[in-house]
Amino acid sequence: MAEKRIVLGNCGAIDPQDIESYLRNGGFKAYQKARKMKPKAIVEEIKKSGLTGRGGAGFPCGLKWELARNTKAKTKYLICNADEGEVGTFKDKYLLSHDPFGLIEGICIAGLAIGAQQAFIYLRAEYHFLYDPLCRNVAQAKEKGFLKHLDIKVFEGAGAYICGEESALMNSIEGQRGESRYKPPYPPQRGLWNMPTIINNVETLMNIPRIIDKGAGWFSAMGTGRSRGTKVFSVSGDVARPGVYELEMGSPLKELVVNLAGAEDIKALQVGGATGNIIPGYMMDTPLSHETFLGSGAVVVFNSTRDIIDIVYNDMRFLSEESCGKCTPCREGTEVMLEILGRLQQGDGRERDISTLEELARVMAAASLCGLGQAAAVPVLDALKYFYNEFMDRVDQSHFLRSYLGGEFNQSKEAVR
Amino acid sequence: MSAAGKGTLSSTGNRAELLALLKQELGKNGSLSKTVLTSLADKTGLPLNEIYGVSTFYAYLPVAAAGKNIIRVCGCLPCDLKDAQGVIGSIKKELGIEPGQTTADARFSLEQVGCIGACDQAPAMMINDTVYGNLTPAKIAEILKSFK
Amino acid sequence: MANVRLSIDGKSIKVRDGTTILEAAEACGITIPTFCHIKGLLPTGVCRVCVVEVKGSKTLMGACHTPVAEGMIVSTHTPRVVAARKVIVELMLTGHTGDCVNDTNAENCVLHNLASDYQVGAPRFNVKAPRFYPAEESNPYVRRDLSKCVLCRKCVKACHEIARKDVLSVGYRGFKSKVVTGFDEALNTEACRDCGICIEHCPTGAMSAAPGFKARKGGAVR
What we know:
The complex is a heterotrimer of chains A (417), B (148) and C (222).
Chain A: H1 19-24, H2 29-35, H3 39-49, H4 61-70, E1 77-82, H5 91-98, H6 100-114, E2 118-123, H7 131-143, E3 151-156, H8 166-173, E4 197-201, H9 202-214, H10 216-220, E5 223-224, E6 227-228, E7 230-237, E8 243-248, H11 253-260, E9 268-271, E10 277-280, E11 298-302, H12 308-322, H13 328-345, H14 351-367, H15 371-375, H16 378-386, H17 388-405, H18 407-413
Parallel strand pairs in A: 1-2, 1-4, 2-3, 7-11
Antiparallel strand pairs in A: 5-6, 7-8, 9-10, 9-11
Helix pairs in contact in A: 2-6, 2-9, 3-4, 3-6, 6-9, 12-13, 13-14, 14-16, 16-17, 17-18
Chain B: H1 14-29, H2 34-44, H3 48-55, E1 69-74, H4 77-81, H5 84-95, E2 108-113, E3 125-127, E4 130-132, H6 137-145
Parallel strand pairs in B: 1-2
Antiparallel strand pairs in B: 1-3, 3-4
Helix pairs in contact in B: 1-2, 5-6
Chain C: E1 3-8, E2 11-16, H1 21-27, E3 51-54, E4 61-62, E5 73-75, H2 79-94, H3 110-117, E6 142-144, H4 154-162, E7 169-171, E8 178-180, H5 197-201, E9 207-209
Parallel strand pairs in C: 1-5
Antiparallel strand pairs in C: 1-2, 3-4, 3-5, 6-9, 7-8
Helix pairs in contact in C: 2-3
């Protein structure tokens, strides 16, 4: 099964800075077709296609649009989430660099569908080098008359992973701290400045013109279950050919990681980013889909020299630094987990550390305000599930060190509580 | 109702422009010092504590004095696997600073940051707005020398 | 204004559309513990103490901010809820690093009382670098001991929405979040009008009246 470069189709084949190049390649034909459709019909087509969010959450796109359509308000907003802060994810950077007009066309059609007058492209600060080019792309589209119904503004973030979470993203655009909001209300009901808002990932929006052009049936014929179409993956880590690859949903992990990216020695992989599942190397036949493992489509490969505790420690350090800090379970819980993992790393674990991690994981998953806190412990739980012995080795090592070194080691390391 | 609560719920006006204004001030002044934020508070009518609260949330809006060039080395897994700590070590060798520090001549500040989206070129770093990937000690030395 | 029917702990109740689970529970005599909530103001939703089970939801929902829905089935004290509350209180105690043992006001500490209600003892958890701050005693009216702060934001909310001053904000991010004033300085007397509203609402004693000064009772300065 070879790569299926559909969303990536224009990348490398057109000049990303020249709208004429995009137009010659069939660009904005889907937009012209959409303009002749009733907005409700556009929504129906997207619903029928089965397109789900490509940023990580995987929510049905058409359903989300329908909610926004059905909410009565004089102003509606569309936001393209180009914050791409998820660890190991760089596909949106690639898409923005090589086919920005593809995104703009998707935004235009989405705007028609939901009745938005204002759109934002929330671009992460780390991609600042794309800011001016994107503004130029928007200006060209405007010049050609494609933005009569919709104004597109490029809004730059300021360095906060949590701003990839849609409620934090909206707060950021509003000039607030990028903290998460409690839900409900959900953005399609009340979002940016309390108005109905749709937030879609770059890749999700870039699927729109193709679905309108070729039809929902064409799209839903690819993929499996509730994971239709293709997915653009970012592969990195212990692989010979790191990069961006596009495969039909449901393709086996092996196809992506071994055949395309050239991995040879695979102990484990993390799929979906810092809160993504950790999978042992023997599960390479697993299909990649929402039903199994997917997230943002980031795949990081670890060879047999890698230590599983180092891996989950790195993820937890990132998450605790990026936690917005608003809610107790995430703000305190990630830091407590980090302390435990840090001690395990240093060979200073305790038997009860494992049960503490599991207990905290349950509470964080149940009570955190947003996905960061809710999913923070996923890698830890997976690592415990598949690599329990490595954890227990560290705990045993600590016992050994304590009894061997005794005295000073016990005094400095033993917790009072 | 916005759970964040504070500030005006208006798509126009000073609150909506705050992040852009802060970036502008940062570009003009090199850092968001108390003087800079106080004048921004006067200009926008927003309280100083509110502006400080927003600035300090974001990694790219530093309120502390920083070097002329900010080096951000990614420490997340894809880069960590490719020896991000070695990159930090090389920078320490060249400039004598560790993450969180600024060189004596204020030419460089160093930070360890989260994923910058250059995972296929790991290990990677940013200096100001430019990404440098596939780093080696020799490359790092060369890159740093190119900054005046 | 439609009437919404729901069930809380088996009790059936009809309330107005827009009512929160917390309000609905109160209306039928069920008390859900809260911590960061200030009655009468919009919910903050940060402490997560008031989480409850709602049938059909994978996660627990904050009662203070979740509006009721037709046919909603709420359980406020299941083993899962109680277990979560205990850990949440324990996590707050972990961040509450003040010298409460020596503090005569400690028995009034809402956090300690909540911990006692839920039989939560000294926390089992550690963090690498606890949020310890030296006490701020330069302001003649307000003493700030931020080591005791558990970031419930009641002071921020009270200052902004009751006192109508905007002296306090949350600064920094994540674990290092802090209630700040000015450019993260000591509470200065020009900005702070000593109304005492923050002290009144602080549940942990992080904000207290400076020794020798009794804050005006309920005096919001308008």
